[in-house]
Write a structure and sequence with these properties.
Distance between the termini: 8 Å
Largest sheet: none
Structural class: mainly alpha
Number of strands: 0
Shape: flat
Order of helices and strands: HHHHHHHHHHHH
Length: 305
């Protein structure tokens, strides 16, 4: 385990280094933020003075070297638009994004896994057709379309739920449901496929032949072994949730990291964009490591190497 974690740490550092180079290059070549910070009638002298003050007059290589030093110290500098610590801004918005993503994944797993098991047990029946159809439909609909339709139906027409904000639990319903609907499709389909493979295995037939109850055979013997690909899908879906949160948070005016990054990209707020992307990257690396460790808990035959 320690050997695996050490190797994973080295790989993560290489990934973070490559990602820092990519993000820094793309962000700094996207345009000059100084013109956005000054009024349109600013003189060239004022532009040059602000550029020197922000350290943007140095060559790109020198600025990247300086950025790497800041990254090692977790100091990305101050936001150009908010005049606050960039990492502090990102960490301040991160809980709102993680709460939304966590609820969406939890809802998708709680609903999706039982539906996938039911579809596998009722293979080629009416229940299987309905569940599979709903799963495919949910995965096919664009997130932004579902979000807008949800606002028009439940907030504008029926007036059951608020359209934007994050003040109460009612504000979570529409954005969480929008993200969960897409996640639900992948989890249902993977659970169904994995369960169909496992239900025909010899050890499942043996358990049934011993007279064990059907529920125990399905939930304890079959689902545990069928859960490995499902856990993989859930881990991969988390990347979509964090990426999709950019759209969801923007549509629902959710005060999370995705909305902050969109606003920062438009304002060419380099420190916030760099801090936000790298914080998300570190979080995803940790999640992928936890997913790999979960494999060994679900199936002792799997060894981390």
């Amino acid at each position: 385990m320690l050997t695996y974690l050490g190797r994973r740490l080295v790989m993560s550092l290489v990934v973070l280094f490559g990602l820092s180079l990519l993000v820094f290059t793309m962000v700094n070549l996207s345009g000059d933020p100084v013109r956005l910070l000054l009024p349109p009638d600013a003189t060239n002298a004022q532009v040059d003075e602000l550029r020197r003050t922000l350290g943007l007059d140095a060559p790109l290589v020198e600025r990247y070297w300086r950025f790497l030093g800041q990254f090692v110290r977790f100091d990305f500098g101050d936001s150009l638009q908010f005049r606050q610590d960039a990492l502090g801004l990102v960490l301040e918005r991160l809980p709102a994004t993680l709460s939304l993503a966590g609820l969406a994944i939890l809802l998708a797993v709680v609903v999706g896994v039982p539906l996938g098991v039911l579809a596998a047990l009722r293979r080629d029946g009416a229940s299987d057709a309905v569940i599979t159809g709903v799963a495919v439909t949910g995965q096919s609909l664009p997130v932004f379309w579902v979000a807008v339709m949800g606002i028009l139906l439940f907030a504008v027409q029926l007036k059951w739920l608020p359209a934007a904000g994050a003040a109460t639990w009612r504000h979570y319903v529409l954005p969480t449901g929008t993200l969960a609907l897409f996640l639900l499709g992948g989890i249902v389909r993977m659970t169904r496929i994995s369960m169909l493979e496992v239900l025909g295995a010899a050890y499942v037939r043996t358990a049934s032949a011993k007279g064990l109850r059907r529920g125990r055979v399905v939930w304890r013997h079959a689902l545990r072994n069928a859960a490995i690909p499902v856990v993989t899908v859930i881990g991969l879906q988390l990347r979509f949730v964090l990426g999709g949160s950019v759209i969801t948070e923007t549509v629902f005016a959710w005060p999370g990291l995705g909305r902050l990054l969109v606003r920062s990209v438009y304002a060419r707020d380099y420190p916030v964009v760099e801090a936000g992307v790298l914080v998300v990257a570190v979080f995803l690396i940790l999640v992928n490591t936890l997913v790999d460790i979960t494999f060994t808990l679900l199936n002792p035959r799997v060894r981390l190497q």
